[in-house]
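haha ok so turns out i had the wrong file open the whole time. this is the CORRECT one, sorry everyone. sequence first:
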Amino acid sequence: MKGCRPGDIVLAPFRLGNSTYPRPLVILSVAEAEEMQVCPVTSRPPSGSPALACSLHHFREGGLDLFEDSYILVHKQGTIRERSIRYKKGTLESDYFRTVLESARSCR
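then structure:
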């Protein structure tokens, strides 16, 4: 999917644990070779791992299909290709996205 940028949340296949399936991902950065650095979003609160709570008020547009908080797993970063994106779910507010980036960088 063309036009996705850092701060967007997209749906794409991503390996988490022992399985790969489509899940929401926050785009952290985009490289020239159409590769994107991402971290997954889950509805389950992680235990003992760094994560950021994410709710509808953290979105500038769009959102996730949940009524409760979701969690951005900043410690589970990976890469995807742009062509694997199924669709865009929304875009995070700029200030909140800066918080996500700072947390993700501290986990590298």
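The chain has a mean pLDDT of 90.
again sry for the mixup
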